Amino acid sequence: MAAERGGCSLEAVPLPPEVRESLAELELELSEGDITQKGYEKKRAKLLARYIPLIQGVDPSLQAENRVPGSSQATAALSKQQKSRSTNSRDERFRSDVHTEAVQAALAKYKERKMPMPSKRRSVLVHSSVETYTPPDNHSAPPDVTTGLVEHLHHERPQVASVRGVPRGYHSSILETADGVPVNSRVSSKIQQLLNTLKRPKRPPLKEFFVDDFEELLEVQQPDPNQPKPEGNQMNVLKGEPLGVVTNWPPSLLAALQRWGTTQPKTPCLTALDTTGKAIYTLTYGKLWSRSLKLAYTLLNKLTTKSEPLLKPGDRVALVFPNSDPVMFMVAFYGCLLAELIPVPIEVPLTRKDAGSQQIGFLLGSCGVTLALTTDACQKGLPKAQTGEVVTFKGWPRLIWFVIDGKHLAKPTKDWHPQVRDASAEIAYIEYKTSKEGSTVGITISHASMLAHCHALTQACGYSEAETLTNVLDFKRDAGLWHGVLTSVMNRMHVISIPYALMKVNPLSWIQKVCSYKARVAVVKSRDMHWSLLAQRDQRDVSLSSLRMLIVADGANPWSISSCDAFLNVFQSRGLRPEVICPCASSSEALTVAIRRPPELGGPPPGKAVLSMNCLSFGVIRVDTEEKLSVLTVQDVGQIMPGANVCVVKVDGTPYLCKADEVGEICVNSGATGMAYFGLLGITKNVFEAIPVTAAGVPVSDQPFTRTGLLGFVGPDYLVFVVGKLDGLMTVSGRRHNADDVVATALAVEPMKFVYRGRIAVFSVTVLHDDRIVLVAEQRPDASEEDSFQWMSRVLQVVSLSFLSFQAIDSIHQVGVYCLALVPANTLPKAPLGGIHISETKQRFLEGALHPCNVLMCPHTCVTNLPKPRQKQPDVGPASMIVGNLVAGKRIAQASGRDVTQLEDNDQARKFLYLADVLQWRAQTTPDHPLFLLLNSKGTVASTASCIQLHKRAERVAVALIEKGRLNVGDHVALVYPPGVDLIATFYGCLYAGCIPITVRPPHPQNLATTLPTVKMIVEVSKSACILTTQAIMKLLKSKEAATAVDIKTWPTILDTDDMPKKKLASIFRPTSPDMLAYLDFSVSTTGILAGVKMSHAATSALCRSIKLQCELYPSRQIAICLDPYCGLGFALWCLCSVYSGHQSILVPPLELESNVSLWLSAVSQYKVRVTFCSYSVMEMCTKGLGTQTDNLRMKGVNLSCVRTCMVVAEERPRITLTQSFSKLFKDLGLSARAVSTTFGCRVNVAICLQCLFVCIFFFPLSLCFTHFDGLCYFCLWSCCQPNRLGKLAEQGTAGPDPTTVYVDMRALRHDRVRLVERGSPHSLPLMESGKILPGVKVIIAHTETKGPLGDSHLGEIWVSSPHNATGYYTVYGEEALHADHFTARLSFGDTQTVWARTGYLGFLRRTELTDASGERHDALYVVGSLDETLELRGMRYHPIDIETSVIRAHKSIAECAVFTWTNLLVVVVELEGSEQEALDLVALVTNVVLEEHYLIVGVVVIVDPGVIPINSRGEKQRMHLRDGFLADQLDPIYVAYNM
Fold first, then answer.
1. Which pLDDT belongs to residue 1261?
2. Of 418, 820, 1166, 1215, whose CB count within 10 A is highest?
3. What is the 3-state secondary structure (H, E, C) of 53-71?
4. What pLDDT is recorded for position 134?
5. Cα separation, 1338 vs 899, whole angstroms
6. What does the DSSP 8-state code read for residue 1134?
7. Distance of CA 156 to CAs 197, 789, 821, 853, 885, Å?
8. Are the C-beta atoms of 669 and 705 separated by less than 8 Å?
9. Which residues contact 970 (CB under 8 A, 6 or more apart)?
């Protein structure tokens, strides 16, 4: 097998035994699925690498790389390559044939690699027709003439119709086949594809286990021992030629202007062109001088405020001129210099939301700019306020706009003459620069530096007087300003300025002007050369023979060589000489760094270096051959500037000198550099005052150097080579990659059909402590979604092939692309003169405002520094753990409520174990005492029930069951009623008749397809012999609509109780034993399991007794209940407790809040209720619905100061954020901050904790309870007689301990450990106590697997022992065997006699410093989450709510979120509350936040509409229902993204 895969026979090759043994082990791992095919091939190739010469067919990339050890060989190779330029035809920018060949080879190798395509709803970003679509500007997408690109690889997309509204069936078996893969599931088939791409070998076992005081470290990328290292000698400081001494050289730039303006006034200085290419105005030196004088005079003498001059020398002034008006800009610039003002040229703000505009405003504000100069035409085009004035742009200071057209300028008086000073160290002008992060800084240039730079450029370029120069660049900054505005005036040159608008219309215009004006010099960028190539076929009569220098301003871009070579190949036949092309390197800080000189100026022959990309990523220079695919070919940018000293230093840390074969940052020491960042002393020192040192730490000079931000090295003949910029540098896993290189790779993957070539942005974002590469491109409107996705997947494969295979022959960059996004055309933010505003694009990506139409994430490939997965310790038993806790001084985590043993042993207490007996007694002793009061949505009383009324109604129900239903004792009866008194009466009627009641939520009339099957299921599973309901619901159950959802013929007997005969029951049933079944409590858990628990009469009375004692309930008290009455504690409070304790319950059905959200709070205020119960869904409804209505409620008289306790009933972790928001919101209505508390119950015990803050000062001994003849305690009787006095005593009473909040380390929690941390600590998670443990309840924390007791520093399962535990499951639908021991669990060590019930919830106990009313120290129980819902990922336990909380914070449009796993993939479902165009923004944000905060990789992100995530009546998410709907493709998602 191995021999066949390798392509040759190994039998003929003498391999050592250990190698053969390793190969056999690899074969075994592959056959057992422990390693992927790719991993097998990689490991096998490494084993056989040393035997490569003996074996044919082994990948040649594994042969040792022929590195050049010394610099002499590198020099020889470079010299050899300098002789001739490549003659390959390159007609594209950012492209080389070698690079395209590499991409083709990579795509061919990975042609079969398929990825699941994302699912998108058709309504998302539907493109309009191609005919009506506006393409981007021509500058960003000129017509492409590319040929010979790679062939498009077609991948079929499975076409399955999307179904919405299909009912979620309750039979889980119908959704999945035997192997767990859903049938007919589009989603699941894609997930299976994804799983196939993510199969990885098993990780080796870890040596270390979790330590309590651990510091979780991300896995650090270990350096490859075989990575290339620099081997050359340390470089020396390179000294440029000295600045020549020029006779009669002006002492300043203004002096030169004065000279030419007075002695050569008619000499042309600048010619401006219109968008048709016609010369519209020629500015002479005389006009420039006179106009500048007028402007300087006007600025200093005519602009006043409150009789004071507006400006004084040294003030900064903004110059706001469009690219089409160089004449007025030149006048404004020199006018400011003459007035000794400091010009700050900026771009024209077109809208209030221009990309980077706010940062420009910050710069203007920091510079103290108050005046902006502009033209009349420009000022009219600026956005205006209603007053007609120019609006104040976001982040900008308030500016005065001054138009400098001739009519607005005053003629200077005869006695006014400006002072033309010699060049000094004072600031001449400020040039803005936008950093990689998007911040804008101002670089100050002094008069002396400006003059020295002009001198250096004149010498380096050989400028002479009256020469003609064609300038295509932006004249406001960089090379366009230096050559076209400053140096040209110094040398009395004539500049032909080509506006950007003309280049968009006619890319060949600059060549035409060179030809017509016989220009000697042209200043362009490589993009201008590229555009001219695309248009040159239409022009045959142009000639470039007049050019002596074609300065390529962006020669520092490594990919500019493609444009230069292609331009030379085409225009050499039209007079262009090869030596004319002169790339240069520059930076805003150091100005011009290097420029290539023509031979007549003494320049050496041009150089070209073919460098290994792999070595460059390590910062090492290794010359390679063009035959290899992973190479970068760069051209030199000439020699350093005259009068400058240059060195190359290490990028990070102390600026040590680099070795000769090492890439570093180029630093310059010269009189012609910038001075500082205006107002930023800290970074000024780091950049403008760097002191390079040798390896021994010795400074190389006593003069400071300026960091240029250029990455490069010095080659043969002292030529400077630049391989990238710091702003485009992306350091991923310790390796450096250049953004331009990634762009070139993306463009090589057949982009023409799918994206615009000039509209691609590459940047990095920091995720999980490492840079991640993001690629964003504009998609063509006529590109189909399928084709675009396949292009994206191929780009990702090509860029990151080496990361996947580690085989050098397939490597292009050896880095994974984290995210690739396609956005609609014309939506990326544009830079002022074309291209993409990278920092603004990055900012939109991070803020979720990019709005892509296609997105592909690859975190599985890119993120390699995740913490090591946890390996569980195998030999730690329960006894060892408990001994370890004792040794560590940690107590066993157990606690209990008040002791009720005396009460249980009381004879009188045993007499009243049955609620039916209690109701009869109350009907006899206090017949008119009100027990229940039901409110409707209007807040009025819908119905009431006193003791006698309830008793009589229960009797009538019992008669109907016996006579009409013909039921026997022990038969089960389903009660299908809306919340109300009828439900309570029928419950007691069943007890009177000896039947077993089961409360069932009625089906929703508008949603029968979903709700009716649940009713049917409960009726069938509970084996109900009869259904009691109302006439309306009975008709609904038998309707035609119901027949479409369930089989209505199989309903048991249905009785309506609306009109029952008034018959007296002959005898009320009395159970023979308190252990007999009282009722069944059915509920669907959050994990989707339908479970019915059995509650005996003894457990029922014990439950009521515990709640009575905990909450101090008595007949004169009123409580308000806003809960669903169908299961759990909600049912007990609604139906049981009032009858047992005698208090009045004000019933508020939660459904009524949908039409009147203030109903519950208004009722609490109206009846001055002290204790109230609600659910999280009710609390959330009030928080959202009444957030802005508190003032209206106060005006209506709503006052919540009466509330002592507001308890939230739930079976989950307390939602601390929601409870705090609720308390804070209704604080203005008098709600006490400590009133809101939580409860905790579950299936095995519906009430474990209740946090009742109101506790009376008088506590009667429990031995006195139920000792009176009537079965009530003396305290109750006394309270009935003197309720007013009791109220006063209560207000003077002491409260129980407040619910405590602790902060735990979320990382420790994943390892089932509890570590308390301070609030605000990293990874801290706030947890609120779940309430005080009820009387008679004992709680212990047990290990989930060993079932041994745990210490209070451990997270474990909460076990409970209590008289009111349920006696067992009646049925657990589909999970009977799984939960067999839930009610009869015993500890495996310690107290092995006590019988416990397993709650299925994880939590921990903490003994606090607080004391309760009895003086005991308070034990607080903290519930963390459901054990069944925890996610076992990477060997650790995650709780869904923690991940969901992080996701909801990721974007403002995320309304709700739910997570679950499927076959080890983490699936995140997000509800989008906003525009659908924001849907795809969430994919990256969700992936980022889960990685950052939880160290997990999201496998699938599903974007859905609001309300899709199912929530039960308690406000709990039904994640398993959601999972089933996802797998059955029933969610109708807006978008489904599959992360690779």
1. 41
2. 820
3. HHCCCCCHHHCCCCCCCCH
4. 38
5. 10
6. I
7. 17, 11, 21, 20, 59
8. yes
9. 994, 995, 996, 1077
Residue 45 has pLDDT above 70, yes or no: yes
* Cross-strand bridge partners of residue 1029: 976, 1056
Amino acid identity, position 550: L
Quick check: 1164 pLDDT over 90?
yes
CA–CA separation, 996 vs 470, rounded Å? Answer: 98
The pTM (predicted TM-score) of the whole model is 0.79
Sign of the alpha-carbon dihedral angle for 395, 401, 404, 410: negative
Using CA atoms, how far residue 1026 sits from 964, 1082, 1373, in Å, is 10, 16, 20
Residues 555 and 487: their CA atoms lie apart, in Å, by 20
The residue length of the chain stands at: 1540
CA pair distance 366, 430, nearest whole angstrom = 12
SS3 assignment for 867-927:
CCCCCCCCCCCHHHHHHHHHHCCCCECEEECCCCHHHHHCHHHHHCCCHHHHHHHHHHHCC
pLDDT in tens, 242-296: 988 877 888 999 999 999 999 999 999 999 999 888 999 999 999 999 999 999 9
For 876, other C-beta atoms within 10 Å of its C-beta total 14
Q: What are phi and psi of 1478, to 5 degrees?
A: -85, -5
Which pLDDT score is estimated for 1284? 43
Packing angle of the helix pair 253-263, 326-338 (nearest 10 deg) = 110
Contacts (Cβ under 8 Å, ≥6 apart) of 267? 260, 284, 285, 466, 492, 494
Tokens 């009912």 sit on residue: 167
Quick: pLDDT tens for 197-248: 554 444 434 333 333 334 455 565 666 777 889 998 999 999 999 988 877 8
Which H or E run includes 1345?
none
Helix (H, G, I), strand (E, B) or coil at 1140: helix
Query: What's the longest Cα–Cα distance across the chain?
Result: 131
- Helix residue spans in 1239-1282 (DSSP H): 1274-1281
b/e string for 145-165 if b means 16 or more Cβ within 10 A?
ebeebbeebebebeeeeeeee
Residue 1439: which of 1487, 1401, 1472 has the closest Cα?
1401
CA distance 1488 to 848: 11
* Helix boundaries (H) for 1080-1231: 1097-1111, 1128-1131, 1137-1141, 1159-1166, 1176-1185, 1190-1195, 1216-1225
Give residue 1018's Cα distance to chain centre: 42
Q: In whole angstroms, what is the distance from residue 1243 CA to residue 122 CA? A: 43
The C-alpha atoms of residue 500 and residue 516 are separated, in whole angstroms, by 19
531-568 residues labelled b (16+ CB within 10 A) or e (exposed): bbbbebeeeeebebebbbbbbbbbbbbbbbbbbbbbbb
Dist CA 49 CA 67 (whole Å): 17
Query: Which of 190, 160, 128, 155 lies closest to 1532 in space, CA to CA?
Result: 160
Q: What is the rounded distance in angstroms from the CA atom of residue 136 to the CA atom of residue 778?
A: 9
For residue 598, what is the DSSP state? P
Kind of pairing, strands 342-346 and 371-374? Answer: unpaired
* 102-131 per-position pLDDT tens digit: 555 555 555 545 556 677 765 544 443 333
Q: Per DSSP, what are the bridge partners of residue 310?
A: none
> Could you tell me where the DSSP H helices lie in 1226-1324?
1274-1281, 1283-1292, 1306-1309
DSSP letters spanning 288-306: HHHHHHHHHHHHHHT-EET
Tokens of 1300: 């405590």
Burial class (CB in 10 A: 0-12, 13-18, 19+), 259: middle
